[in-house]
Specification:
The chain has about 375 residues and is of the alpha/beta class. It has helices at about 30-40, 55-70, 90-100, 110-115, 115-135, 160-175, 195-200, 205-225, 235-240, 245-250, 285-295, 325-330, 350-365, 370; strands spanning about 5-10, 15, 20-25, 45, 75-80, 105-110, 140-145, 150-155, 180-185, 260-265, 275-280, 300-305, 315-320, 335. The termini are far apart.
């Protein structure tokens, strides 16, 4: 049995990083949180534009993402900073994180503390205490079955569907064979190939859930009266050789490998079991990866033909390409080059094993290039109007 090094949390979950998360509940608290992060090494902030003027499902989604980021096992402790008059309830988020994970959480409110300067001063002290507490955690041997990996593609070109995506699919099979789990998203990028994903569903109910995700998106596009073409495939996708959404989707779905589809979850919703799951999410790189992080994945494997530098504040994002020119041109950003498959120098199985080996190294503490460069992009997918 393959073992990995991880941080065992009080609720039994396993993290592969040990971040202290600085969480603003509303856009108005972003600057305070950013100032605290600048002063306290070992912390990561997730500034965002939401938290107020939201109602209904839109408000619920923001709450779910923020709470999910705090509950992610890569996070060892959380400092929440609220303004005091927003619609997102900071105490509810704090209670949810504590009750479900047992992690230390501190909450500061800017209005109650007497303004930005006083909150920053108190926040620096609180963050330092949380870092000291989190630093007590030590890596220990845990089975690889504890790993949940997100599989994502972005900046795709013709090499993505021919090489890097199916190679990642081989790696996905290895993770699931070891008892681990895979989460694939991007509802917008299975359109035209959704029937092939549905064929892998373990039940009629799972199959119906998948089709409902696609139908819901298509109805929204129809309601807006817009044409998805030009946005998906994007201009870069088209320049890279992709001719249609169907061609892009056929490449996209190969990332998950050959395992049966166990279930479908909503955006930022934790998967309920082991194996391969699908998350209803946009294809937008940052929103999708953020939703995966909030759902509890510890790592995201991200294929790209054109190249992209993006990362995430709490989850390592491993970049994989099948384009030899991108691998050389964007060497600063690419972790795994699988272009040898297209050059006849390696098989898809060999490329998949290479990705798997890099995943294990990353899980055990090796930094991805996105982490080294400080890429911490974060964005919450929004579904409602601003009041």
């Amino acid at each position: 049995m393959t073992t990995i090094k991880g941080y065992l949390r009080p609720n039994g979950k396993v993290g592969i990083r040990n971040h202290v998360l600085l969480m603003p509940t509303v856009v108005c608290a972003n600057q305070v949180v950013n100032r605290i992060e600048q002063q306290v090494p070992g912390t990561v902030a997730i500034p965002h534009q939401h938290g107020c003027s939201q109602v209904g499902d839109d408000k619920i989604r923001t709450h779910k993402v923020l709470a999910g980021m705090g509950k992610n096992p890569n996070v060892g402790a959380v400092l929440i900073v609220s303004l005091g008059c927003e619609v997102i309830n900071a105490q509810e988020i704090m209670n949810e994180i504590i009750e479900e994970t047992g992690k230390p959480v501190i909450w500061l409110d800017i209005q109650n503390e007497g303004g930005s300067v006083k909150t920053i001063q108190k926040g620096i002290e609180a963050a330092r205490s949380l870092v000291n507490e989190a630093d007590k955690a030590q890596r220990q041997d845990v089975p690889l079955k504890e790993l949940i990996a997100g599989v994502k593609c972005g900046g795709s070109d013709a090499t993505s569907g021919l090489c890097s995506n199916p190679a990642l699919g081989r790696s996905s099979d290895l993770i699931i064979k070891a008892g681990g789990s895979i989460l694939m998203g991007e509802t917008t990028e299975i359109i035209g190939a959704e029937h092939l994903v549905a064929e892998k569903a373990i039940s009629d109910d799972v199959r119906s859930q998948l089709y409902r995700c696609v139908e819901r998106f298509e109805k929204e596009i129809e309601r807006l009266g817009v044409d998805m073409r030009g946005g998906n495939p994007s201009p870069g996708n088209i320049e890279g050789g992709l001719s249609s959404i169907e061609e892009k989707s056929l490449g996209c779905i190969s990332k998950a490998g050959t395992s049966p589809l166990q279930g479908v979850v909503e955006y930022a919703e934790e998967i309920p079991g082991k194996g391969y799951y699908f998350m209803d999410s946009p294809g937008n790189d940052i929103e999708c990866v953020s939703g995966m992080a909030a759902a509890g994945v510890q790592l995201v494997c991200f294929t790209t033909g054109r190249g992209t530098p993006t990362g995430n504040p709490i989850v390592p994002v491993l970049k994989i390409t099948g384009n030899e020119f991108t691998a050389k041109r964007m060497n600063d950003n690419i972790d795994v080059d699988t272009s040898g498959v297209l050059l006849g120098k390696e098989t898809l199985d060999e490329a998949g094993k290479k990705i798997f080996d890099e995943i294990v190294k990353t899980v055990n503490g090796q930094l991805t290039k996105a982490e080294i460069l400080g890429h911490q992009e974060f964005s919450i997918n929004r579904i409602g109007i601003s009041l």
